[in-house]
Write a structure and sequence with these properties.
The structure is a single chain. With 129 residues, this protein is mostly helical. The chain is built from 2 helices and no strands.
């Protein structure tokens, strides 16, 4: 410290200004170092935000694709249900038609049996008389 004081006395104002400018340079260097670190942090934050935005965009795209797949599956299920209902209706009509034919045949057989019974009863009645 004494050396500085003696240098000040010998060199005077020029030495003082040199020391002051060196100190100012050192302080400004440290301030710029901090600003640079702060800028790096901001750059990292911006990069992280950009990456997050990209990830969120990808997630959104995947959700949209899944939504479209779900809609397609729902449409397929609906069409399968409609097809099944049409098949059931068709089978019901076929079975109904067959049952109607069977009922008609049964009625015709009943009619023929009654006709035969009446014929036989008349025949038996004539034979008794």
């Amino acid at each position: 410290m004494m050396e500085y004081v003696s240098a000040l006395e010998k060199g005077g104002i020029v030495t003082l200004l040199t020391f002051i400018s060196a100190g100012a340079f050192y302080v400004s260097y440290k301030l710029f170092e901090r600003v640079d670190r702060t800028q790096n942090i901001f750059t990292e934050i911006k990069h992280s935000q950009k990456r997050n935005n990209e990830i969120q965009g990808n997630i959104l795209k995947e959700m949209q694709i899944n939504n479209k797949i779900s809609e397609s599956q729902l449409e397929n299920s609906r069409q399968q249900l409609e097809s099944s209902n049409k098949l059931i209706d068709l089978h019901s009509k076929i079975i109904g038609s067959k049952l109607d034919d069977l009922n008609k045949n049964i009625d015709e057989l009943k009619y023929e049996i009654r006709h035969y019974e009446n014929k036989e009863l008349r025949k038996m009645a004539r034979e008794k008389v």
